[in-house]
Here is the input.
Amino acid sequence: MGRRKRRKEQRPRPVRRIPSIFLCPRCSHQSLSISLKKKPADEHAVATAVCGECGLCVVFKVPGIYQPVDAYGRLVDIYDELVDLIEELASAGSCYKEEGVEGGSEE
Here is the structure.
């Protein structure tokens, strides 16, 4: 006499979410927040990246369809190209603004 086989209960896989806090390219702490400001009439958005640990602040333009994770990738590219300039500005306590960006707020 045998038993009936039990059916294994399948657990749903956890949903992977896009992060809202990123790894800072300067200090390597998980403390970089990126905010996007979109204007309804403009096809571009202004991204502001601020690190809560080292004080890195960068303001740059991104296409309007970008999400914060896309802007983070662009930030890493900008940082790699302009390391010396951004380091100098960050040590002075000011925010690096990419050319042609108006209205980005310093935080």
